[in-house]
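As agreed, record passed on underneath.
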Amino acid sequence: MTNPLTASIVCAVLASTACGGSGSGDDDVGDDGGGGDPDGGGGGGDGGGGGPDGPTARFSFFVTSLDTMRAQSGSQDGFGGDLGGLAGADAICQTAAEAVGFGHKTWRAFLSIYNNGSPQHAIDRIGTGPWYDRNERLIAMDVAGLISGNRPAGDAATVNDLPDENGTPLTTFGDSHDILTASNQQGRFDGNSAVASCNDWTDSSPGTANAVRLGHSWPAMSGQHWIRAHSARGCSPGVNLVQDGPGTGTSVGAGGGWGGIYCFALTP
């Protein structure tokens, strides 16, 4: 016979799993659910088991998924370059993390801005590490590890295919590698005016072609660096998950992606 006191203790410790506690699921709002659909953007992820005391407690890095960018912007095309400034971009990260059970951590967007000639650099915004993906795989132990080469100095299985907040590698979704940074390979603002950051992330107009730096969530022929691979065609909203070179139009996603951003927790 099970001792009632023992059972209650087990329930207290394992409330999120064995005793029916609520896990955190995917915020599935895309057109299609499954990963790999070039029009969808949903799917992947374990849908639960996280939270502050769960098996993914060290979760501290992700790329914003297409689903969350669509849901938070209220548009199937996402935000474009108008993220609401740095504060708005941080809120996007915080909201995405909260949706999968990690809103108790403080999250920051890995973005740089011109700031009227006194740049704020992405690399200075994210704490000191270490950082782990949703699957508990190491992204980098420290800042030096983030900028030591084309890819962060972490687990090859994740740094060569950086995942979203659900733990799903971005290759799952098609040609999805372009990530907004406005930064050079050291994570510092790359430009000489606010044009290079979609007017400090407040502009969703066509903007100036080839002015805003993009990183690659996974290595591609057009560039291998995760922070600075090449430049965006413009600042307007848009999603393109089909491999067609630089793409067409002026959207942040024209070359492959949806204008996603990197998000880091200040503490692992």
The chain has a mean pLDDT of 85.
